[in-house]
Task: inverse folding
């Protein structure tokens, strides 16, 4: 490249930087959309997608075996399959595997530096990463729910109609929470795992209102409340006095509140935190 | 040099992590040209670079790039950073990676394509950029890192150990790129452990140790500041033996070594005192001095001396 | 000692048997895990149950000493600290959840990163073979398992004995100690093999945690559903943790004759099958690094 050409290229580049400055929002938006798309693609092509598919495959096979026996009811489906297999395990795991990996994996692989050095405002970087993991988590949670409900036939289809809003709200809440873990903790996956499969179960079996710190509590309350038409009652098969359920009308806003609060907390934390160990 | 406006400025910057002070009251300005950042491990180089690139916020003082705070998103438009860590999105090709970085900078698809091609051409990777990053050699990875750092034509380019793992031919090519960037009016900050590189590469050098800036400026300027820094001086003269005898009488000369046929190597303790004495002797007696050179004015020698002084 | 087997140079610079390198690998791996803050948090969680049991044993001994008449009453209330084999078996079984959590964390640090970042090549570049490396890593994981299961159980056993009037408890219940060590050894062996295999294939934390959770959380749930659906308790045999407990109860000698013995046979077969599958999964991963002979 001759000196003249390179000077020309540099000038053009400079003009473009100035343009990028003047249209910071347009540039930021297109940059964050690009980031979200690339993150989505990378997360989708990761090993967790294969493991997720295998887990869902197991669950579907068991649900199929369960549905072989005649006279199954939605109440049985919810208490025997949906709650123990889906909402207690698959739902948090699907959210965990994409939400914690989204930023925590970049930190682990030291590629977060590239994102932090881009002129994208940090809140936009966070939201782009959040959107990519949320989209994938929703794909798995909603897709998994539909598949599980479809394979068991009528009881599943009747259940699907009432539980999908719950699953969607729970997905938002879990993704928000695990994403927050992802920016707060270096070993976010283990912390998320400890929360989802240890703390939630632990406090879930405690008496009193302590279980209200668990996302799963609100999810179950909503399902039990919605499934009252199938005779599942407000507390499922739990002792109502011990379980202290809340109504769906209270649980739904609680889930959305958790989703919004964790998203906001994540944005604030990510925007202010110094990631000194990223390179 | 000092008349040129600074592109970035550290003003009394300190940074600490808990009880550890990583950077202690550092002030300097980066101007167009190549500036070498030299210091031993743990000296505070990485902290300085992270502050400059907006990855860290100063605990005290301020870091400004083109008059905006380095922590702000706006400052990052002016900075290109080539990290030391060998970290990439391994599944991407070199081209896709550089283009992705351009997209993150806010360029539209077509502009990003053009910018990334120009950057790849500049680092001479155009024909090899379609391979997966995972299959690249260390030198090729360094070039891709450099390409992503300059893809948006930044005013300040920060290069952390950019010549690590690059073969001699590649080194020469990369040095040429650095020089081109510097000639285009950009401020290039190169952190390196290989001090020899700085002799030929850097216009200015900053010595940093234990979080403090020991010295900064051109090598010559620093040398002038260090009047008491012992020197090795080689003199070519017609009658070296006689001159050697005279030299040994000077208090500022610690040792003399004859290098046949016509050279002698002097170990000078106090250069400030030595050179006027030598000039006086040369004027008085006719030793026919043909050449006089300071042989250890290298970055390494100055740095060693500074380190020793800092240690004391 | 043959010349071939004298290949490992220890810190003393003397050439020794390469089998000793396994110990070095295990020790280094353990230190690597011990350096992480999260490990100590998890260990703290694991020790909560231990401290609770420790305090209960002390409380029981104190109450019994003050009023011997209420000893039987206390035994009825504090069933988890009766000093029988079952109480130690239950304790070790309950430690499972947090042990599983800790291993999920340790898997990536101890094994996954070796495959992910080329650490295995580094190990095999020394004069040790794949066997020594594998043994070292398995030992490291085994030691972690023991740290939360066997060692606390042994301490509780000693505490129980020490809080009685004489050494009779310790002398008469040596079989319990063997049971603790046996159950601990089985858990350490099986869990280290399974974890090694999973970490070697999955490498990264997220998929490893998912697979680990599936093995110890999802499979038990599915086992219970299937046993209810099919009215067949044999489905419970897919619960690895339960199988290990059955083998543990055999170690403690608390197995009834008949049906339960048959069940233990099945459990042992499944556990052996899992171990064999793990070994079969580990071998190709280790062979992926070629060492020129």
Result:
């Amino acid at each position: 490249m001759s000196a003249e050409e390179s000077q020309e290229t540099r000038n053009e580049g400079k003009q473009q930087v100035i343009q990028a400055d003047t249209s910071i929002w347009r540039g930021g938006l297109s940059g964050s959309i690009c980031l979200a798309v690339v993150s989505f693609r990378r997360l989708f092509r990761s090993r967790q997608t294969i493991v997720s598919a295998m887990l869902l495959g197991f669950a579907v096979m068991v649900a199929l075996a369960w549905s072989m026996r005649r006279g199954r009811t939605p109440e049985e489906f919810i208490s025997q399959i949906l709650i123990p297999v889906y909402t207690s395990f698959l739902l948090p795991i699907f959210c965990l595997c994409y939400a914690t990996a989204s930023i925590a994996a970049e930190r682990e692989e030291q590629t977060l530096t590239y994102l932090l050095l881009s002129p994208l405002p940090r809140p936009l970087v966070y939201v782009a990463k959040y959107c990519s993991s949320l989209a994938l988590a929703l794909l798995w949670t909603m897709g998994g729910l539909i598949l599980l409900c479809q394979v068991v036939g009528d009881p599943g289809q009747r259940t699907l109609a009432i539980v999908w809003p719950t699953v969607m709200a729970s997905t938002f809440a879990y993704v928000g929470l695990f994403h927050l873990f992802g920016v707060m903790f270096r070993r976010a996956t283990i912390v998320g795992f400890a929360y989802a499969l240890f703390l939630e179960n632990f406090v879930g079996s405690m008496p009193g209102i302590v279980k209200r710190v668990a996302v799963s509590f609100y999810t179950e309350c909503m399902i039990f409340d919605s499934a009252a038409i199938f005779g599942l009652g407000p507390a499922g098969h739990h002792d109502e006095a011990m379980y202290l359920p809340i109504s769906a009308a209270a649980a739904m806003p609680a889930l959305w509140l958790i989703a919004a609060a964790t998203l906001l907390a994540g944005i604030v934390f990510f925007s202010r935190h110094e990631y000194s160990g990223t390179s | 040099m000092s008349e040129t406006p600074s592109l970035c400025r550290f003003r009394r910057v300190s940074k600490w992590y808990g009880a550890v002070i990583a950077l202690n009251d550092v002030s300097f300005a980066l101007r167009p040209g190549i500036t070498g950042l030299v210091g031993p491990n743990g000296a505070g180089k990485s902290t300085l670079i992270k502050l400059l690139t907006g990855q860290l916020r100063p605990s005290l003082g301020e870091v400004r790039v083109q008059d905006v705070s380095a922590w702000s998103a706006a400052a990052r438009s002016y900075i290109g950073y080539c990290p030391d860590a060998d970290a990439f999105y391994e599944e991407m090709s070199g081209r896709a990676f550089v283009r992705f970085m351009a997209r993150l900078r806010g360029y539209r698809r077509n502009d990003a394509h053009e910018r990334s091609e120009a950057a790849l051409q500049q680092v001479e990777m155009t024909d090899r950029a379609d391979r997966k990053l995972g299959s690249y050699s260390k030198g090729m990875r360094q070039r891709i890192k450099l390409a992503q750092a300059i893809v948006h034509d930044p005013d300040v380019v920060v290069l952390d150990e950019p010549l690590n793992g690059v073969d001699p031919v590649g080194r020469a090519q990369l040095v040429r790129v650095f020089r081109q960037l510097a000639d285009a009016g950009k401020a290039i900050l190169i952190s390196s452990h290989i001090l020899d590189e700085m002799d030929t590469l850097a216009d200015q050098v900053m010595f940093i140790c234990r979080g403090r800036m020991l010295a900064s400026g051109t090598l010559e300027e620093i040398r002038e500041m260090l009047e008491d820094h012992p020197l090795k001086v080689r003199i070519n003269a017609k009658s070296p033996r006689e001159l050697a005898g005279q030299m040994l009488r000077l208090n500022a000369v610690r040792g003399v070594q004859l290098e046949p046929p016509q050279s002698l190597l002097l170990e000078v303790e106090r250069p400030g005192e030595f050179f006027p004495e030598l000039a006086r002797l040369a004027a008085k007696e006719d030793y026919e001095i043909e050449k006089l050179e300071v042989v250890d004015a290298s970055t390494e020698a100055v740095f060693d001396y500074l380190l020793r002084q800092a240690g004391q | 000692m043959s010349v071939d087997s004298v290949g490992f140079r220890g810190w003393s610079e003397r050439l020794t048997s390469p089998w000793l390198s396994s110990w070095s690998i295990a020790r280094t791996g353990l230190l690597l895990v011990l350096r992480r803050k999260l490990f100590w948090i998890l260990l703290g969680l694991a020790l909560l149950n231990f401290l609770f049991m420790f305090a209960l044993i002390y409380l029981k001994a104190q109450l019994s000493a003050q009023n011997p008449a209420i000893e039987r009453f206390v035994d009825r209330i504090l069933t988890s600290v009766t000093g029988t084999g079952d109480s130690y078996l239950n304790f070790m079984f309950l430690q499972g959840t947090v042990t599983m959590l800790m291993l999920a964390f340790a898997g990536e640090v101890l094994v996954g990163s070796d495959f992910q970042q080329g650490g295995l090549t580094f190990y095999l570049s020394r004069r040790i073979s794949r066997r020594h490396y594998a043994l070292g890593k398995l030992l490291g994981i085994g030691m972690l398992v023991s740290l939360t299961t066997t060692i606390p159980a042994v301490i509780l056993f000693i505490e129980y004995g020490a809080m009685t009037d004489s050494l009779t408890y310790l002398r008469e219940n040596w079989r319990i100690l063997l049971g603790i060590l046996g159950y601990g050894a089985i858990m350490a062996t099986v869990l280290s093999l399974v974890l090694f295999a999973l970490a070697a294939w999955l490498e990264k934390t997220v998929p490893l945690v998912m697979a680990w959770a599936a093995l110890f959380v999802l499979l038990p749930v599915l086992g219970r559903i299937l046993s209810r659906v099919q009215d067949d308790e044999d489905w419970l045999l897919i619960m690895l943790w339960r199988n290990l407990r059955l083998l543990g109860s055999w170690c403690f000698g608390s197995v009834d004759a008949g049906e339960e013995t048959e069940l233990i046979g099945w459990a042992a077969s499944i556990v052996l099958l899992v171990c064999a599958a793990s070994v079969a999964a580990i071998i190709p991963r280790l062979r992926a690094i070629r060492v020129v002979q």
In short: The radius of gyration of chain B is 23 Å. The mean pLDDT of chain B is 84. Residues 118 and 149 of chain B are 12 Å apart (CA to CA).
